[in-house]
Every structure is written in C-alpha cells, then in structure tokens.
Design brief:
Layout lengths: L1 H8 L9 H11 L8 H19 L13 H10 L13 H17 L9 E4 L3 H6 L14 E4 H10 L8
Helix pairs in contact: 3-5
Length: about 170
C-alpha cells in the first residue's frame, strides 16, 4: 500500500505502483538498503498455516485469529482478553522481517546486528507501538528500530525536496 499511496500523493493515477521510485527516493534520503516485506508476509502466512494445522490437531485453541495487526492485538488485550489464547503466536510481517534482517541477513553479509538500524515504513500508526513491545526484542536489541508511517515518509521526502516523479 505504501508504493500506491506514494504514487497518488505525487500525482500518479490512482492505483499506480511506484516501487522503483520509492526505492530511489529512500536511497536519496540516505537509506543504505531498501527491502520489501513481501517475503516475510509470505513467511507469516506459512507460519500461521502451520500453527492452524497444529491447532486443528488438538494442540491449541480454535479459532485461530491472526496477530498481524497490532491494533487488533491491543483491542483484544483490552476488550476481549478471553480471546488472547486464540491469537496466533506469529510476528507480523515487518517484525518477522526485522528479526530476519538482524539474524540471517546480518550473518550472510558479515554485519554486526547491533549496528543495523531497521526502519519499517507502514501505513498504520499501531505498528509504532508494536515495535516497542517487550516480546519484539529477542536479544539485546529490537527487531525493528523505527517505524515511519506513510505520511511521515511523504513529509520527509517533501522536506528534502525529493519528488519521486522525477526519479
């Protein structure tokens, strides 16, 4: 959704995907590497499917409810705590991606995970809260260090004078 929203804000027809322009814009802002969470979204789906099979086999409470939305998780925690056992134990795609970045990717690239700063660009402000939840810290550091909303990244681009249409 980020790639489509960015395109609309900068004048592209509704629904135009501007992934390459977003990558170029983020590189101009100073990001060293830019990744999409598509891969970790697929991992989350596969993990949730595995968890569903486990629960269908009698090892866990049904129905299984997705834990991908931190807004939904917080809502359940506050208003429907009786359903917490129904929530999937899987991390959301951006949190799973952060964990993979600081483990697998860091090892493959020979990088110190403590020196990697993972910035997630997400459409939902609840992702900011999710990134600082204690269970999102598997080691001495957070999986995702910062979360910027779509609006915030658009403002940063505008402040820096970067127009993705021209990239």
């Amino acid at each position: 959704s980020i790639q489509v929203t960015l395109g609309e804000v900068f004048g592209y027809p509704v629904g135009t995907v501007v992934t390459g322009k977003l990558v170029a814009a983020l590189r101009r802002l100073g990001f060293d590497r830019v990744f999409a969470t598509d891969f970790s979204a697929d991992l989350t789906i596969m993990e949730e499917a595995h968890e569903l099979l486990e629960r269908l086999a009698g090892r866990g409470k049904l129905p299984l409810l997705s834990s991908c939305s931190p807004g939904w998780v917080k809502f359940a925690e506050h208003f429907y705590p009786e359903f917490l056992e129904n929530l999937s134990t899987c991390k959301s795609p951006h949190e799973m991606f952060g964990a993979l970045t600081k483990t697998y990717f860091a090892e493959k690239e020979g990088l110190d995970p403590k020196k990697i700063v993972v910035v997630a660009i997400m459409p939902c402000t609840a992702k900011k809260y999710e990134a600082v939840r204690p269970e999102m810290i598997d080691s001495d550091y957070s999986d995702v260090d910062m979360v910027l909303t779509t609006r915030e990244i658009i403002r940063l681009l505008q402040m820096a004078g970067i127009n993705p249409l021209k990239l």
